[in-house]
């Protein structure tokens, strides 16, 4: 489950960087959410046009395919900051103190390696569809409207780059916690038991009914 | 080492990463990328000077997947189905549903618990995610049950179990994911979930009534609502009905003729109605923003698993593991039904330790072709098949079975997300309490799954009409 | 040498030449050179050319209309109403265009080399509901038709709504589209015929061009014997394909009867009007816009027309 985890803050440089980056990340997540909202509006327009006026929305599929990366990927760093990507924490949940920070450091480092490589790979994917000499700089386009694909493809390396920054901050946070032997470090999602994580998740719906 | 051995090693490595606590999405992508590098390098005979080439080809191959797989009109159902659930909450539909269910059916033995099941089933018709459903109803239904003297553990168990209905009754994010992975008709799968979902609700109800009749101190029925009070409770819950009808008509027109559109469009129109209602009920911009960010978080979490696992699946394609596994399964000298039951039991065990979506995404690429092969192939006719149903029907039937299994796993210890969520909402309940309370429902789910296996018509009747 | 070959869907008439090629090559090299044909396991169908350029696999099939910007030169073969009547003519014009330096150059940018075509007959429509047998009924029709075919339907008020072939059945079943334009084999293998009530027998608006390409590096690193085995097998593979497809076409009427699909004939004057609107004007527009992008568009177009004439004359 995507869930709220607690990320502590203080007035250290790391914590200020964390909060600064969080503003960017949250804005990106909001863009993803607005994308989902617009998807809904697009369908309403499409259905109304088709059934009401025999005027189907041209390129309905093209627009959806262009918007999906924005909705599904753009805000990925925000989810990482909150520790919202699911995992099995049977092993990690049993650790405390230095062993815990070490374990977190190692898996986070592996994710960083992965994401740096995927920035490269997804950039190459973007780059193959991008050519400054062509009309609309496009070397690959959607089937019906011929919308250039490169903006949607560019979303991925951009989102992954922000995620890499986030991972670097988290590595810094875990590394610091390991070296100093902290119990409640700043700027990293604090390991909660799965139950505590769910509690935080559930808290989000409190007070709204 | 041949490709299939590489496939097995990498798959083992992936399980280790998951157990060690790496986020499932990244663990799958990591294993997939690593496997691709291995397989490309192996093609060059592990020549050190070719490692750079293998790395580059693997990275670029994996780098196609996030955009390529996510930019899909079929997958656009997922954010819509999630958005609709959050908006329904802000529109006050959950409270309205519970009130209506209470006034109409709480007079039976175990009344409020039965009402909770039905209100949840109703909410399931607008919510695409089980865990969100459980969280919402834990807030609304548990206090009411405690007021009339239910055991708090049992009250929590009812909510945790009933929450799983959201993934069978359409809309359902997890059914869409299944349909995408196995490349089957999303509409038919959603339709297929409808009756098994209601059927599950019915089995839950029978269980509760049975317990209420047997146990002396079980929660009493709640009576004394006038007919006027009953009818007054209906209008606020009506938008749910409108949304259900719309989604059904967009998937399949019961009066013959064409469906009104696609499931995506149906979900979106439903979401739009609920959105209008939420605005009318006074939803502010700040609340809309919360709903959008929550939708984004849940969608991104799900999509990360999707593209992460699909990188691993791309590697499996190069390793040719799925077809090897299918060949192995079909070569076994046991009855197909026995093998199917074993597969379902394996899901029950795996599900104890994993969440539903991750489990399905990780296993289906290998298990699904095997099950289809077991039945006689993707295009087999009903009369030539092992399970007595055509290939496409088998795909639907198996889909409902595994989704029901995956939902069952949401309430089994030690990792049962629905139980965690319910315990999280209620400060007076520990996770152990909820697991205790939900135990009777294991029997109900076992019965449901056995009946779905024994009588596939429960699943296939509706989609075979469409 | 073992090559990975990326195609999509399931084995069908459209991929038989690839299987034949694999058999022939293995036979000629005594099993030294084999091909491992994967249906969808190695790549998404719209990204096969990307996969070739990366070097992830050595051979692949793709359709020009999925991504015209990647392969502008060969989109000349997808122009509507070119007047290609038989599969043999389709092979002749396709291979003539594939041999043009502008095509070779554009493919080389993807590290790809044209090997052979996958000829298909005219893409006729299947649809649900009442048959659409007049031009006026194409207004507001959501049709799955890519490339030049999409342009043709757009010219008469249709709304091209294109999903890839693998998703066409689902799109039709769920109402994303009203009609699907496919060749016969694809109506069969992608199941669109199963949900259709009618098929246009004589609309014949054009077809789609789907070449098979190889990765240049992989091709060049073959031994001489292997390369010779590959090159010399192409004609036989194509011949096998044509024979196999011919059988399928012979049975087509039986299939229509079995599936209870109505065969719709469109009146000659309606067809003539469609050609007037969607034929020459779209050809001219293609030549203008491709010339503006620096392609020898006029030359390519005339190559098609000329080859077609020669192919006719030789029969
Ligand atoms: Na649902
Ligand atoms: Na579980």
Automatic annotation (TrEMBL), chain A:
Molecular functions (GO terms): transmembrane transporter activity
Family: Belongs to the TRAP transporter small permease family.
Subunit structure and binding partners: The complex comprises the extracytoplasmic solute receptor protein and the two transmembrane proteins.
Domain Tripartite ATP-independent periplasmic transporters DctQ component: residue ranges: 39-172
Entry keyword set: Cell inner membrane, Cell membrane, Membrane, Transmembrane, Transmembrane helix, Transport
Location within or outside the cell: Cell inner membrane
Transmembrane segments: 27-48, 60-79, 100-123, 154-174
Pfam families, per the entry: DctQ (PF04290)
Function: Part of the tripartite ATP-independent periplasmic (TRAP) transport system.
One Gene Ontology cellular component: plasma membrane
Topology class, membrane: Multi-pass membrane protein
Protein name, as recorded: TRAP transporter small permease protein
Matching PANTHER family: 2,3-DIKETO-L-GULONATE TRAP TRANSPORTER SMALL PERMEASE PROTEIN YIAM (PTHR35011)
TrEMBL record, chain B:
Membrane topology: Multi-pass membrane protein
Coiled-coil stretches noted in the UniProt entry, renumbered to this chain: none
Gene Ontology molecular function: transmembrane transporter activity
Keywords, alphabetical: Cell inner membrane, Cell membrane, Membrane, Transmembrane, Transmembrane helix, Transport
Primary localization: membrane
GO cellular component: plasma membrane
Domain TRAP C4-dicarboxylate transport system permease DctM subunit per the UniProt entry, residue ranges: 12-458
Location relative to the cell: Cell inner membrane
Domain of life of the native organism: Bacteria
Name of the molecule in the record: TRAP transporter large permease
